[in-house]
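Board notes, transcribed. Complex of a protein with glutathione.
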Amino acid sequence: MTKPIIWTWDWVPEGPRGFVRDLRLRWACEEAGLDYEVRTIPIADRGAGHLARQPFGQVPFLTDGEISLFESGAGLLHLARRSEALMPRDPAGEADVLQWVFAALNSVEMVSVPWWFLGINGASEADNGLTGWLEQRLTHMERVLSEREWLAAGQFTVADLIMADVLRIKAVRRFGDRPATEAYVARATARPAFARAHADQMAHFAAADAARR
Ligand SMILES: N[C@@H](CCC(=O)N[C@@H](CS)C(=O)NCC(=O)O)C(=O)O
């Protein structure tokens, strides 16, 4: 079996550490007990080789033998085929996981990232034209999460991994009272596989600081 290689930046400033999306792929490998490697590309020099593998000049991307794929969600689904710890094999369970992975990306993150971006560029919650839309999405998630422990197929899956990664950004959950969502994020991020992935990413960028000195 080939060993997945997760590609991320060689260095990032303090702010995004712990949130760079290579963490999603690290977390999945840790959950599945997959042997994997992390390699880097220079953040300051996004050359043609990088664009050939990630057309938007971003990270992460994943290589696995002959396969190279970008988009963290695609990488997660690729890894999920390797382990039932990430996605069950039965068609109904798999379909359930697929729909919730897309919901995390295309119904929640699709609103939360632009909302957050307007916020860091100076819009207050009241001024941010996306606040109502985000609140609506979070309210629906709160209802869903108050009825179940994990989103799909009656077990923790990559759908939870990505939904929890989207929701764990504190600013996104800052307004409103959503106890089920809070408990869900706490439950997902208390998993030892998340802790290892997070610690490894932090150590990776700390080592890059040391190398730059
Ligand atoms: N939709 C992409 C988003 C990737 C993304 O936003 N990557 C960030 C790091 S987490 C990045 O490379 N930012 C630098 C940039 O956009 O120039 C995915 O999920 O893989």
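The pocket of glutathione is lined by residues 20-21, 57-60, 71-73 (CB under 6 Å). The helical segments are 22-32, 48-53, 72-80, 91-120, 131-145, 158-167, 179-189, 192-212.
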